[in-house]
Amino acid sequence: MSQTYDNSESLLVEVAWEVCNQLGGIYTVIRSKIPSMVNAWGDNYCLVGPYVHSRMPAEFEPNDDYDDPFGRGVLRMRELGFEAYYGFWLVSGRPRVVLISPFTVFGRLDNLKYLLWEQHGIRSAGNEDLVNQVIAFGEVVTIYLRELVNPNLTTKNVIAHFHEWMVGTPIPNIRREMLPITTVFTTHATQLGRYLAMNDNYFYEHLPFFDWYKEAINFNVETKVFIERSAAQSATVFTTVSDVTARECEVLLGRTPDLVTPNGLNIQRFVALHEFQNLHLEYKEQIHEFVMGHFFQSYSFDLDKTLYFFTSGRYEYHNKGFDLTLEALARLNWRMRQANMDTTVIMFLITKQPFHSINPGVLQSRAVMEEIQQTCNAIEKQVGERLFYAAASSSDHKLPQLNNFVDDYWKLRLRRTLQSWKSDHLPSVVTHNLVYDREDDILNFLRTSNLLNFQSDRVKIVYHPDFISPTSPLFAMEYGQFIRGCHLGVFPSYYEPWGYTPLESIASGVPAVTSDLSGFGDYVEKHIPDWNERGIYLVNRRDRNFDQAANQLADQMFSFVQLGRRDRIMQRNRVESSSEFFDWKHLTVYYQEAYDLGLSRK
After folding, report:
1. What is the distance of C-alpha 307 from the center of its chain?
2. Cα–Cα distance between 175 and 234 in angstroms, integer?
């Protein structure tokens, strides 16, 4: 354990490409831990990100007060001719943030690339737009940090924490210039690891034998890998997010991480006091509406005996475990049919794929169902008014014939609407018309396995190749609300450096499946007591082949569908309480250890 230093004697600058710039998982990491970082560092904490848009980000608020080291550093950058902004990130914690445009040095891009090659051996041939922006941003960040450590701005220790290869180029420059800056580099996933795992079903077995340079050229990520390796090897302290990824780093980046800094969430965002059970019911009703519109046109089933499973994430068919999930679902369907169960499982696959439009049939069915609902509401109102009058004015105590209270107009309208809605077609397994329908791995599996939403199927599929949002005409709800309305999240990833999706699931009080090959699952297995009784299911993919893992996942899901309502409620209580283990207020201690270790190496 390194010596503990006083944070008041240091400035912490956290640099990431996704500061005020939402693109992927790093945004969630950075944003969610801000309240804990501000609590620990106060005014000595600042984030630095790229200004790469034509408009200022909506979540950035400019600050007119430059009377602190970070602000004075921005003024100095402007004096030197750079486009830099200082303000606050309008998220929980409201941290100080500096945004710097990389485009002000684009005129020197060729020279910057030459210096990267000459001084650090980083090759950057070609003209890839993201790589060009990354190299330019690295230059302006280096200049900003060089100004920040000027004694006229501050005499405090300066710690610069860089996340991922996109902000990695300043690190070797800082080391070469011997600037008085403690550098920390965190890789959340190695560039090569993702590609290799996607293309090798035995990635972990073959990991010790990969030639990183040969594979970087093979996957055309040479520059990215060179930047990542240089940052990892030059940093004062090198960290990654899980023991799973740490094994990759040793082979693919040439350095074993000094520390593992697991990811967390600002759990307070998800806590709904004692109402998460009520929220589950509320949002489940909204999902019911979608399901009725999607399936009841063709056939119906008992919604009180229907369970909603979901998986989500980047479309990486093998890495994200979509292949294993689908195979286990096919086996689950067979088992439930063999057991003659009257329970229905609806599996939602939420990911992003190119599409032309929402399937017109799906959209029309939803619209007609809403028309049926409006007609029923009108009939309900008419019957209610007339029933009240009849009851109040009649001396007969019997319930009148309610059918007599409905006008012929509404009877005919309801009949015609129902006739136009009902169909002999099977409910579609995909909600959108995909651009690459014939090449889509999910659709090809469903077609090959005949898992096509037959009425006799106990497991039914809804493949939604777009984000869930309130503007969606199909769901009209937030993704977080959708999660709360479901019963089980399924994420048995093969390659997953951390894995926020199962963590978000349990933070919402929804049981989740993960795998021991994901950073999250590995952490659960090693650090969470009685995880298997807390509503967290673990698929052991590390020492099982695909068939064995599929059977284990099918067993877990089959056991889940046999739980009674009371058991599911108790499990949601347990899983919601276990989310406390992943609150940043507990996990930022790992970051503090990294900073203390870095200062001890000065």
Report:
1. 23
2. 7
Q: Looking at residue 216, what is its pLDDT?
A: 96
On whether the pTM is more than 0.85, the answer is yes
Residue 441 contacts residue 323 (beta carbons within 8 Å)? yes
List, for residues 416-456, the tens digit of each pLDDT value. 888 888 888 999 999 999 999 999 999 999 999 999 999 99
Cα distances from 186 to residues 22, 166, 492, 533, in angstroms, run 18, 11, 24, 32
Predicted pLDDT at 273? 46
Domain boundaries in the chain?
8-266+586-600, 280-359+428-582, 364-393+400-420
Side-chain half-sphere exposure of 355, counting CA atoms within 13 A: 17
Confidence at residue 388, expressed as pLDDT on a 0 to 100 scale? 78
The whole-number pLDDT of residue 529 equals: 85
CATH topology of domain 280-359+428-582: Rossmann fold (3.40.50)
What sign has the CA pseudo-torsion 484, 486, 487, 491?
Answer: negative
Distance CA 148, CA 585 (A): 29
User: For residue 470, what are the β-bridge partners?
Assistant: none
Q: Which CATH superfamily is domain 8-266+586-600 in?
A: Glycogen Phosphorylase B; (3.40.50.2000)
For the chain, which residues score pLDDT lower than 70?
1-2, 268-274, 276
Cβ-in-10-Å burial (0-12, 13-18, 19+) of 396 comes to exposed
CA distance 402 to 14: 68
The pLDDT of residue 2: 58
- One-letter amino acid at 228 equals E
The residue written with tokens 């620990």 in the block is 40
Among 78, 91, 82, residue whose Cα is nearest residue 37: 91
